Structures are given as C-alpha cells and as structure tokens.
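Cross-check.
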Amino acid sequence: MAGGYDDRDGMIWLDGKMVPWRDAKVHILTHAMHYASAVFEGERAYEGRIFESVRHSERLRKSAEMIDFTVPWTVDQIEAAKYDVMKANGLEDAYVRAIAWRGAGDDMGVASARNPVRLAVAAWQWGAYYGDAKMKGAKLDISKWKRPSPETIPCHAKASGLYMICTMSKHAAEAKGCSDAMMFDYRGYVAEATGANIFFVKDGEVHTPLPDCFLNGITRQTVVGMLRDRNITVHERHIQPAELEGFEQCWLTGTAAEVTPVGQIGDYTFEVGAMARDIASAYEKLVRTA
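Predicted model, tokenized:
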C-alpha cells in the first residue's frame, strides 16, 4: 500500500459500516480535531491474528472513560470490526488502528456532551517502526519535554492529546539524526520514549521505569512477564538520569516498536547484547504463537 494515508485503496470500518478508504472522512468542526477528545489503539496482526487484541479493545473503552466519554460499541463489536477490516483489505500481517472520538454535533466549545461518539478501525501493512535498529540499536535523543504529573492529565489513557509533546520530541530527535527521543517525567526520573516503554540491563538484572505517570504498555507488561518466566530479576522502579551511565543494555517495547534494542541515548552508549537480542527474538516467536 503506497501513497498518503488519505489517498489509498482499501476499506475502513466507520461507525458500523465498511466504507472505501478515501471516503472515510469527518467534518472540519469535529470536536476531537479542536479539543483532542479522542482515544486510540495501535495493534499488530501476525499471520491473521491480532496480538492481545481483546486487551487493546478493553483499553480503548477504558481510555474513553478516563477522558469522560463512552464508546457505544462493545468489546466484542470492536473485535469483530478489527477482523472484518483485515479481511476486507486482504491482510494477514498488519498494523491495526482503532480510534474513538467526539464528533461534530450540537456543541462546538470545550463542552461536548451532546456530540456523538464515533469509532473507526483501519489496517495497513507496516514494517519495522525503527527500520534496521533491531540489528544495530536505535539512537535516541533526550527530549526537553517531560511527561506531566497525574494531577494534570489522565496519564493512563491512550488519548490523542497526550501525544502532542511526543510528536514534538520525535521531530526534534529526527532532525538530529536520531530514531526517537527518551523523555523524563515531571520529577526528573527516566520515563519512556515518545511511543514506547524502555528497559535497561545491569549485572544480569533488568530495570524499567515504574509507570506511575505514563502508559503501562501492553507490550511492556508482556515483556516483564517473559523476563520473569526466565527467572530474570525485573526492577520496576524510579530511575535517576545519572544511572544511565551504568546500564549495559537497553531496549524499547511497544506494539509498533515490538522489542527494539537501543545503542545510544544522548551521550550514553549501550551494547546490543545477548539479553536484548534474546528477548526480541522470543517476543517475535510469541506473537505468532500466542
């Protein structure tokens, strides 16, 4: 599939109907466009099966509740829509994007309780998120933006508005020749990358930031479980910036990123070592057999 994301062949599930890709449009006064009242999920399908599909559908509905609206489709209906989209587009290995948002309606201000909630599901072929970084390790910038306090945002929702500073951070990183950026949180602890969680290795043990002010990713949870199944000690804790110098290996996790080793963060370098390679390989096998 080639071309801009608004100009492709294929079908998109929109509000209960399958519509041609180019016709899946919304009005310019859609509330979500002006006030970020939208939540979404990114998922990968392998050989016709979406990994942890139900958990993603459940999280979509929970995210909506966190930003004060209800998705008027059940988990089962969302599941059916995702697989119908893949079938309609002839896809077995795909990236699946479900998004729910407050549409255009009687309200066009900050309040939007009278506006309809809409839902769309699209799917397309998408390769490695960080290109060849799985072999040599991704290079990360350090963002000037920080993940906000839970007192200021619904930090555990996968909500579109929370990604504004992520987009800005990734653009700045790419301008420096990096693949992504690592972000600190509002207290100055290591948090995550712009769209992926982060792990470090030291002396055979794994350290990963405690997700108390950012999304506890489904892939992150999967990888923590895989490590513990291998009797590898995992420390979920606050990580100080000064600790980066002492870590030996690093990787990112996320639906798009899968498991991607990191070779450099700012001035800190990491080995693409055996544990990073092993967990990346094991994850690739798991998603095709789970």
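The domain at 11-124 is CATH 3.30.470.10 (D-amino Acid Aminotransferase; Chain A, domain 1). The longest helix spans residues 274-289. Passed to J.P. for a second look.
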